[in-house]
Amino acid sequence: MLRLPENFETFPEARKAGFMKMKEHKDRGGKIVGIYCSFVPTELIMAAGAVAVSLCATSEEPISAAEEYLPSNLCPLIKASYGFGLTDTCPYFYFSDFIVGETTCDGKKKMFELLNDIKETYVMQLPSSRDEIALNMWEQEMYKFWRKLEDFYGITITEEDVKKAILEKNAERDLILEYLELSKLNPSPISGYELGTKLDALSFIPDMDERCRQIRQRIDEVKADWEQNYKGKISRKPRILITGCPNGGVRDKTIKILEELGADVVAFDTCNSNREKIEKVDTSLPVAKALAKKYLNINCSVMSPNENRLKFITDMVDEYEVDGVLEIILQACHTFSIESYNVKKAVVAKGIPYLKVETDYSKADAGQINTRLEAFLETIAV
Amino acid sequence: MDKQYYIGIDIGSSASKVVVTDDERLIDSFCLPTGWNSKETANTIYQKLKEKGFSDNISCAATGYGRICVEYADKVITEITCHAKGAYALFSQDGTIIDIGGQDTKIISLESGMVKDFLMNDKCAAGTGKFIEVMANRLGTDFEELYYLASNGEPLSISSMCTVFAESEVISYIGSGEKRENIAAGVIDSVANKVINLAKKHGLHGEIMLTGGLSYTPYFIELMSEKTGRQIHTHPLGRYAGAIGAAISLRPKNSNIRFG
Question: pTM for the full model?
Answer without folding.
Answer: 0.91
